[in-house]
Amino acid sequence: MAEGGEKNMAMVLEELRSFTYKEVPKPVAGENNVVIRVHTTGICGSDVHYWAHGKCGPFVCCGPIVLGHESSGIVDSVGPGVKDLKVGDRVAMEPGVPCMACNLCLTGRYNLCPDITFFATPPYDGTLAQYIEHPARFCFKMPDHMSFEEGALLEPLSVAVHACQRSAITAGSRVLITGAGPIGLVCLLVSKALGATSIVLTDMMENRLEVAAKLGATATFKADDPELLAKIAAHGPITQTIECSGFESALTLAIRATTGGGTIASVGRSGKPSQDIPLFEAMDKEIDIIGSFRYRNTYPTALELVASGRVNVKPLVTHHFTHKQSQEAFETAEVGRGGAIKCCIHLIDGYEPTFP
Questions:
Q1: Which among 13, 89, 182, 312 is least buried, having the fewest CB atoms inside 10 angstroms?
Q2: CA 299, CA 305: separation in Å to the nearest integer?
Q3: pLDDT per residue over 209-245, tens digit each?
Q4: Distance CA 66, CA 240 (A)
């Protein structure tokens, strides 16, 4: 039995595509840490990769693991050194904890820290457990009017904030976003908030393009449209492209659609580690191809965007599941069943979502 007589139940991935609902040790808050009663966890594409294939890019599961990293919850206990949070505070958790000692951390690029511990990135467990411990400095207090779903979605929103910052999107930008999944859609929302003049999205799934249109995309096109380049050009010149699918064809499209001197941010990840792309075409156009990995120092910005109403992430949440329905949730997220965009798992018994 866990400390204090309280159980800490978790969904543990012990075999591919199969969770085991079991008790795990309940954490105790360290000096500068808090223990959080997890409320809501969104399912990310990386979670689905680990669940289905046991790996995501270079990260490989080496044993049982608790998935989940897009999360919000309630502070359950605090360590003796914690001053800015108290029991009962509603918080969103930035899932990565860097070493803060290496050169990358000390120069401000802590998302690239080689020793970062990140929820649900092997070998570290994630947030599909009722209680987790986390440094207080990476927990962000939410205002009362923010829902737990919005708190969880600060994580993918931070990916978008970082990608848009890296791409220097601003008033007057003409943006192409390839891939209209959750990350592509939050990139749309952030690009709008930053004042982009035109935002075009491409995808293979009609329902995702319909959501993009409702969220304010200037235009949406099927990725296999034979006239795609010409149709995108009508909304150009494309100054920045954010590639959110990870597919070779999308990177090729990005190079051919982006104007000379423009920028392509590579955000999406697929199962193919190497990509065959027309690099010399990018060279001849002096296109800057940049990587955008996770985020750094973006959670306060993401929180302000949502809390102020500048960005509305609620339309992205299409499906809700209880903790014990995690298997169904992952099966739904994997194939986009029922038009799924973002599936949220709620770990608090009896919670009744108010949207959609």
A1: 312
A2: 10
A3: 999 999 999 999 999 999 999 999 999 999 999 999 9
A4: 36
| pLDDT cut 90: percent of the chain above it | 95
For residue 92, the one-letter residue type is A
Q: What is the CA radius of gyration of the chain?
A: 20
Q: Is the pTM above the cut of 0.90? A: yes
4 pLDDT more than 60: no
Contact status, residue 78 vs residue 86, Cβ threshold 8 Å: yes
CB 29, CB 133: distance < 8 Å: yes
36 burial class (0-12, 13-18, 19+ CB within 10 angstroms)?
buried
CA–CA gap between residue 329 and residue 297 (Å, rounded):
30
Which residue type sits at 102? C
Nearest in space to 241 (alpha carbons), one of 166, 344, 322, 347: 166
Task: Look at the block and give the residue holding tokens 């809700």.
Answer: 320
DSSP structural state of residue 235: T
- Between the alpha carbon of residue 132 and those of residues 71, 90, 125, the distances in Å are 11, 14, 9
Task: Say whether 195 sits in a helix, a strand or coil.
Answer: coil
Tokens of 54: 């046991």
